[in-house]
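Q: Could you predict the 3D structure of Baseplate J/gp47 family protein?
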Amino acid sequence: MFEDRTTERIKAEALAKINQATGLSPMEGGFADAMIGPAAEEISKLYKALPAVASMLFVDESSGPYLDAVGQNYFNITRKEGTYAYCDVSLTGEAGTVLPAGTAFLTSGGLEFTLVEDVVIGSTGTATGRLRAAGTGSAYNVEAGAVTRMYVNPLGLSSFENGEASGGTDVENDSALYRRIDERRKRPPTSGNGYQLRQWAMEVPGVGEAKVVELAGGRGTVSVTLVDANGKAASAELVSAATAYIEARRVVGSTVSVASAAELEVSVSATVQLTAATTAAAVRLELQEKLEAYRRELISEKFRQVYYRPEEDGAYTMIYNRVAALLLTIPGVVNYTALTVNGKTEDVSIPAGSVPVLGEVRIQ
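A: Sure. Here are the predicted structure tokens for Baseplate J/gp47 family protein:
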């Protein structure tokens, strides 16, 4: 924008305006040249800094640290921290064996989980405990059976197996933070209205989307349905945290129910004609990325609305032809001879309280 405002250009313009009738010479190496040169350099630095002002005043996803500054200073919005993943663990061993809270378990890749509470193996030789990830982040959302090791193998414990871990989310990224700032500007929350309830829910670390239905069960009742930052069903811990956060702020006299969205698995299978420049495996990976972005878009469009009555909150649709278009836009895909979504060649209806999650994607 100000690329032409260089030190040399500014200096030359200033020297050209000197009135030589005053006895001051613009010659190089003269008094005026020596005085104007440093000033021109400092002025040029100001011009170089000016493009950043737009990022400071009119933030977007590329504004970097200014995004945090505007969010905090003007809207009291701060970047959400990541959350911990949790999973159940089945334990087998000698009756009476005690595993204290904090006992550490590991995945083969070194991700650590610890017992939330003391567990005592019962008379049947089995017990169930709850594990929490040692750190935050979606990397801890491991599959069932992924926890395989311990730092120390306790006497009396013969085996263990974890269930699928969920609830781990990463630190809020710039895109998500900007969307919250932009929504606050466009939909001012006030007096415990639907926008404010959504705002409160979205402030809870780990919440990715929150759908509000006013008058959910009649006057004075409101429902809030949560999706985590991974676009999946919210964990019990996340629902509990959001419930407590909203309860501490809700308008007196209102009853707010907080629940997780259900998950509807969507699987895609296609037989495709490819060029020699790509492979079925590469197409599958790219289609997975495109489908993930599409389902996130669907969830955002559905959940960011505030619904006045339950009947306004209807089912929404994953469009079959949109899936076909995503497939055909992948480089190297010439055509497809078969394409099914959940085994059919039609749109997928998603219940109001559910979110689509990506199942198997097959390309052949």
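Q: Anything worth pointing out?
A: The chain has a mean pLDDT of 94.
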